[in-house]
Design goal:
50 strands; Endonuclease I-creI; single chain; Endonuclease - Pi-scei, Chain A, domain 1; 825 residues; alpha/beta; 5 domains; eleven-stranded mixed sheet
Amino acid sequence: MAQTTEFQPLDYTRYDFKDPETYKVRTPRGLSREIVEKISDLKDEPEWMREYRLRAYEHFLHRPVPDWGPDLSEIDFDAYTYYANPLAEGETKRSWDDLPPDIKNTFDKLGIPKAEREYFGGVGAQYDSGTVYHKIREDLTAKGVLFTDTDTAVKEHSDIVRKYFGKIVPYNDNKFSALNSAVWSGGSFVYIPPGVDAGIPLQAYFRINAKSVGQFERTLIIADKGARVHYIEGCLPLGEEVLVGDELTPIEQIEAGRTVLTSDGIETTVEKTMVRPFDGDLIGITPVSIGNDFQLTPEHPVLCVRREQVAKYDRGTGRLSDVDPKKLQSVSPEFVPAGELRPGDYIHYPINRTFHDDPSLGAAALRLLGYYLAEGCAQVINGCKAITLTFHIEETEYVEEVGAAVHELTGKAIWKVPQPEKHAISIGVYSKELYDLCVRHCGQKAEGKHLSKTIMDLPPEKQQTLLRAYYNGDGNVYERYGTVHRVMTISRQLAFQVQELQARQGVFATINVRKPFDETMPDGRRISHRRMYTVYHQVGKRAEAVQRVGDAFVVPIRKIRRTPYHGNVYNFHVAGDNNTYLVKGFSVHNCTAPVYSTDSLHAAVVEVVAEPRAKVRYTTVQNWSKNVYNLVTKRAVAYEEALVEWVDGNLGSKITMKYPSVYLKGRGARADILSVAFAAGGQIIDSGAKVVHSAPDTSSKIISKSIAIRGGRTSYRGLLHVGKGATGVKAAVRCDALLPDEHGRSDTYPYNEIHEEDATITHEAVVGKIGEEQIFYLMSRGLSESDAIHLILMGFLAEFSKELPMDYALELNRLIQLEMTGAVG
């Protein structure tokens, strides 16, 4: 027997970004006979295909929406656009360099050129309704392998397409096969001649970019007698910090539900987090504020103004020189991949515009907090809570301000302890009320000083009172190319918070970092100096430096570097249409299936034909955005001694209804179906399998595994049919469900129709939870609780993941790990 090859379609999305909606052809929203005819006209199809579409459309109108599964009543078929092509029809590219830059950039992020170069015998890419790229290796072409988009196949290989199209999945099979048959566009056509082993996988990528657009690809795979084929359907580094309202947080610690700031300076919530392995150079960006240095992957979009857009033209030298301030004020920032940025470009630092006043924090409390932040300490003395502050002996004005604030807040007088040998004076007051106030809003000890979310959200005029007192206590002023105001702290968190508060005052403050070091004094003592953060701003800076533009500052890049990196990189998308967040205060875009507030519809049809002794493996790992209705019909027929394998993973979408099927029509034909479903809150994954035994001595195996968590719902819905005359059948069905918490739900709906008495049928179903004793055992071996749970889950899914190519197995691992974060414990 020839060596096995597999075929995996990847409607799988690795990054969450959306491109501008620029389409050469786009039909109006809604579905009508005119729209169907328009799609056919645009494709210049033969008459038989046009008639097929119209028959399907008429059936779609009269066929009811299925009511036996998840609730689909919210689908408004007139709300979708049924054809949107970024290229002119028939303009599919055969060279990657010929693609429009925005589309090329999109699929570069998805790794298609690398995949084509390193792994696959052929690659196709579909963008909304249009197949924008298709190419097959020359050695496969020489073997007679056909791999092209289905639109091209209808014209160039019409005899083969017409023989099989709609024969495996007829238009009248169900409501959504009728819809697909009426408006289909794109997809892949594969034909493997008799006895040919394709040898290398073929792969297709599918992407929905525009909101309220449906995708209706049509895939047709024919493996002729004895043929073999495998078809594949198919950020920021660890530790980089994101601004989360009142503090910087490492991106790997960001979870769904967290509040973050967008490039508009407005708070929003994280909807979904993502992680993937990365091996390559990271781009390091150092702005003029050195402390705000950050790193990200080269394709990650950064909001910026390019220097060439705002620089003056020097007629004498013919070069760009200083920046024109008027241009800088008028040019709108745009997102540019980090790898394309250059020193001198300006990046975008938005001003936080989230304000929530707290009337209980008046001027006296804010003055006290500012001085406490600079000079104070909260401590327990002889069992009594107290705050103490230390000033220079000559700072009597500040001492009096603190005394007045304490008296106004508590009615108490402060104590004073002069320390002439240190040129200092210590003051304090016993007060539980003030102790709690200071600790709650400013923390304790020098390295732990920070500002609470309440303080960070106050109106700017109230924050100014605190800042003035803080700078009085800890700040100084000196002259260097203008007047410089600075404060120094060993609290990194406080340094970035002060920078943000100054931005609200209309001032961009830079952060410098002094590394820790040891110093030997003249008397032989060694002193260890801790890392120090200096926050300063300068009056009278040159025009080309930081400038305010609207509700943001544009900050020049000082240096760009590249650093080799091997490890995980992270990303997330947020609620709303402005899918941005802030890294060290600077605006970046989420880096695939874009998330919109409106729903999208994916209704594909896949037809697979395995002629005698052929083998086809079709693997899908799909992670559509959670606003997508994923309603797919996938069906194969297998003739004598043929083998069809479905390896099907479902992790994304709002609702998925997908039941890969195999009709065994020849003696000795076999079907193996391995399905995995993972549903989190708001998701319904209704999946399963169907095998129809119509010939003797056929065999099938169905394995379904599902995980439902945080209110997600999974269902296995399957059919095992043994027809009259199909003697000697052997079939096994196994359904395993795991419910890691109390909120998920899993259902099983098996149907067995057996019409021959000698059939050997087994069916088993198991629903389980993660046992405390399992977690305890693994933790006793040195694993953390989260690692123990993750290991149990991946063991549960091992039968599936081991069948995947390595890249997809790793990605499945990461996705499961992210979805499980915070689920158990």
